[in-house]
Amino acid sequence: MSKPTILNVIKSVFAAAVGIQSDKNRQRDFEHGNLSTYIIVGIIFTVLFVALLALLVAKITG
């Protein structure tokens, strides 16, 4: 297996956040991935998710 691309990292972070990460992808991530890349993408995903929720709540509550 080769090193995961940035798109693979984004997919893995999203799948892990939702709880649907496959065992094959998890093994690829741990064996060939760079921890700092996953941490950075995870932080960005979390910030975007929280911001989206805040915007949604602000729009609903007016």
TrEMBL record:
Protein name: DUF2970 domain-containing protein
Keywords of the record: Membrane, Transmembrane, Transmembrane helix
Domain of life: Bacteria
Keyword Membrane: yes
Source organism of this protein record: Methylotuvimicrobium alcaliphilum (strain DSM 19304 / NCIMB 14124 / VKM B-2133 / 20Z)
Stretches that traverse the bilayer: 35-58
